[in-house]
Write a structure and sequence with these properties.
By secondary structure, the chain is an alpha+beta fold. The chain has twelve helices and nine strands. The strands form two sheets. Strands 4-5-6-7-9-8 form a six-stranded mixed beta sheet. A three-stranded antiparallel beta sheet has the order 1-2-3, covered by helices on one side. A hairpin with a 4-residue loop joins strand 1 and strand 2. The longest helix has 20 residues. The chain is elongated. The chain starts with 15 loop residues before the first strand and ends in a 9-residue tail after the last strand.
Length: 399
């Protein structure tokens, strides 16, 4: 049992005494060392009020269990803004705010919804203000230890986004995810699709898949855009891909305009592309019509009733994931790149790069129709309050 303090020191905080001989207050540190309390600017001893204030602050931090202090009471109450409550309590609300303010795409939203479940589980008993880099590393080890560098970087980016809203609401003092070093991402290993590959796959593909391949190589757009192209729309509209037809071909033989909203660059001006419909595009669209009543150029009757993808809004519309799988299946049946590992074989997305290469070979700048913001030889015009990139007419020869 500790010896009672002398009467003259009982009003002082724990560890603080006054050295009469030296006329200075001394504080016993948790290490046992005694420290004279002096003003660091001039070396003068602190007066009683200042010495008591310093001792109390030191004890609050270094001796928190020796008695009740205001800081511990505030912490047990959840903090001033809820920062000492488990982060899981705030995670859902912070994500809802991010969704409202950033309007993510449907694919991104689905990913966020999956990630928030893991976040709420991992941070179920970790106070917001205590989250450090070690917790982020632990999160990655628990849920994404075997994931690729690219995936791990995306998961850290999600935490960084979520924590940024927490910092904004004073739930965290800083964003520890910003201190996480990104993993090095290797370059793409997939082999490019050649024109000969394209032709071989085309020969074994189903009619609807041939239409998708034709549209992709003529427009330079990928699976998400081509599966959304409608036969006819009354006017260009944000978020809609479709054809606006002229009553008769113009003087240059153009039958209408195909409007593409490229979702991946939806917040950039070049996300909206207007492509003239020449004879080749019209032929592709016309030849896709069959006995199936569908508003979409790429369509098929489902073989069996299955859960409808979130990316489609009509039973006959082809989901982007299904298109990718069908192309890969046709590629393997055609024997294209069969000697390569599966993750090195070209996918449907590689048609986009092939199309860009073929347009470039013909002297036609491909960047505008690809929705790249640094496009040349393009013309911007506004219709229905949306800026569209009108690209020159051009056709790729594949036969």
């Amino acid at each position: 049992m500790a010896r009672p303090r002398k009467r003259q020191y009982r009003h002082l905080p724990d560890g603080l005494v006054f050295d009469v001989s030296a006329q200075v207050y001394r504080l016993t540190l948790t290490t046992g060392k005694r420290k004279s309390l002096r003003d660091e600017r001039n070396g003068n001893p602190l007066n009683q009020a200042m010495a008591i204030a310093v001792a109390r602050e030191y004890n609050n931090i270094m001796r928190p269990l020796q008695g009740v202090n205001v800081r511990s009471l505030i912490r047990e109450s959840g903090g001033l803004n809820g920062e000492t409550e488990p982060f899981a309590i705030h995670a859902r609300r912070l994500l809802d705010r991010a969704i409202t303010e950033e309007s993510p795409s449907r694919d991104t939203l689905d990913t966020w919804e999956n990630d928030i479940v893991r976040v709420m589980e991992f941070f179920a008993d970790i106070p917001s203000c205590d989250i450090e880099l070690e917790h982020i590393n632990g999160y990655l080890r628990k849920y994404h230890a075997s994931a690729s560098a690219n995936v791990q970087n995306r998961k850290v980016a999600f935490l960084k986004k979520l924590f940024s809203y927490a910092v904004d609401e004073s739930l965290m003092f800083d964003n520890p995810a910003t201190r996480k070093k990104k993993r090095r991402v290797e370059g793409k290993v997939r082999r490019r699709l050649t024109l000969d590959d394209f032709r071989r796959i085309y020969e074994v593909a189903d009619p609807w898949l041939r239409t998708a391949m034709d549209l992709s190589i003529q427009t330079t757009h990928a699976r998400l855009e081509v599966t959304r192209i409608r036969y006819s729309i009354k006017q260009p509209k944000n978020g809609v891909c479709g054809c606006v037809w002229f009553d008769a071909p113009d003087a240059h033989g153009i039958h209408g305009v195909l409007y593409i909203h490229r979702q991946k660059t939806q917040h950039k001006e070049a996300a909206h592309v207007a492509i003239p419909i020449g004879d080749k595009l019209k032929e592709i669209i016309d030849s896709s019509r069959d006995s199936v009543a569908s508003p979409y150029v790429i369509h098929r009757l489902p073989v069996k009733r299955a859960r409808t993808s979130q990316e489609v809004n009509h039973p006959t519309q082809v989901a982007p994931d299904y298109l990718s799988r069908a192309f890969s299946d046709a590629r393997d049946r055609a024997g294209v790149c069969s000697a390569l590992p599966m993750d090195e074989r070209p996918t449907f997305h590689e048609i986009r790069a092939l199309a860009a290469h073929l347009f470039d070979e013909q002297g036609i700048d491909p960047q505008g129709r690809m929705a790249h913001s640094d496009a040349k030889s393009t013309k911007i015009y506004t219709q229905n309050h949306i800026d569209w990139i009108m690209v020159p007419h051009g056709e790729v020869k594949t036969g």
